[in-house]
Amino acid sequence: MVAFIRILICLGICLVQVARVSQAQSAKVDEATPDEAIAKLYTYNDVPDHDGIGKFYFGREISQVMGHLSAGWLERSSREVEEAPMKLMEALKLKPGMAVADIGAGSGYFTRRIARRIAPDGIVYAVDIQPEMIKILEANMKKHGLTNYRSVLNTEQDPKLAAESVDLVIMVDVYHEFAYPHEMMTAIRKALRPGGRVVFVEYRGEDVWVPIKPLHKMTQAQVKKEASAQGFKWIETLDVLPRQHIIVFEKEWDHMERGHSPPRSEMVILGNEKRRTATARLLGG
Ligand SMILES: C[S@@+](CC[C@H](N)C(=O)[O-])C[C@H]1O[C@@H](n2cnc3c(N)ncnc32)[C@H](O)[C@@H]1O
């Protein structure tokens, strides 16, 4: 009888141990750190596309960065016809005095056009990850006598903009090159002032006749999918350019971040979008 009781006690202890181990293991799975959760946003392929980096975000392969040796291509005269830059400037609704971030500014083709429209008191932050591009941009700004800008050499994960410092972020033909789109857009979101807008200008991925390599184009649906997961609300898409979409977003739930309750209309969005945006939000996006 005593032996039987001992066996029962041993069995009980074993069961408790097994339960503890499995509880600890499931807690480990649930408690992914923010870094681990961010890492899961990206997937990889060992055999990248010819123009890609083998890293995927929302099913899209990220493209290689256009090198500074191609800066001349950004200044080609045919751009006037192919991209109608004046139409883009009008669509941006620029006003004197605005603070604008031109992310992936390249040689400054758009930085110059923006600087003229927001002068004399407005400022453009010309942000680029290539020091050589920044040098080319600075030389071009000098050549055109423009001073209302600051060049910013950023990193792949950080646009190096101060919190709530800009009214408008414009990204022409660059977002698809971001090696860390989640990290960049999280920081860009923080840099926007209340009511600020972020504008994606991307070659139309839906249009096979646009003569640009596939990874350097984006469909409107893909841009919307990614931006909404990053905490942005779609405002409008303007298809006034010959080859590119102009897709405009604003920062979503700004009032909540400031500790206020959202207005009723936003409560509905909050309910509908909750599942889609939950991951981004948990990651501090
Ligand atoms: C195709 S060029 C476009 C330049 C300019 N927006 C234009 O349309 O004339 C892309 C530029 O984005 C820059 N770029 C790529 N990834 C970047 C990032 N994470 N942050 C800032 N610039 C980036 C590249 O260095 C390059 O100068």
Question: Could you give the topology of this structure?
Answer:
Layout: H1 2-30, H2 34-39, E1 42-44, E2 52-57, E3 60-63, H3 71-74, H4 79-83, H5 85-91, E4 99-103, H6 109-118, E5 123-128, H7 131-143, E6 149-153, E7 166-172, H8 181-191, E8 192-204, E9 217-218, H9 220-229, E10 232-238, E11 244-251, H10 254-257, H11 264-282
Parallel strand pairs: 4-5, 4-7, 5-6, 7-8, 8-9
Antiparallel strand pairs: 1-2, 2-3, 8-11, 10-11
The structure holds S-adenosylmethionine.
Residues 65-66, 74, 103-106, 109-110, 127-130, 133, 154, 156, 172-174, 177-178, 184 line the site of S-adenosylmethionine (SAM).
In short:
Helix content is 41%, strand content 23%. With 285 residues, it is α/β, with parallel strands linked by helices. The strands form two sheets. Strands 4, 5, 6, 7, 8, 9, 10 and 11 form an eight-stranded mixed sheet that branches. It has a three-stranded antiparallel sheet with strand order 1-2-3, with no helix packed on it.
Plain-language structure description:
With 285 residues, this protein is α/β, with parallel strands linked by helices. The protein has a single domain (43-282), classed as Vaccinia Virus protein VP39 (Rossmann fold), CATH 3.40.50.150. It is built from eleven helices and eleven strands. The strands form two sheets. Strands 4, 5, 6, 7, 8, 9, 10 and 11 form an eight-stranded mixed beta sheet that branches. The longest helix is centred in the N-terminal third of the chain and has 29 residues, at 2-30. The radius of gyration is 24 Å and the shape is globular. The termini are far apart. Residues 21-29 and 259-285 have low confidence and may be disordered. The structure holds S-adenosylmethionine. S-adenosylmethionine binds at residues 65-66, 74, 103-106, 109-110, 127-130, 133, 154, 156, 172-174, 177-178, 184.
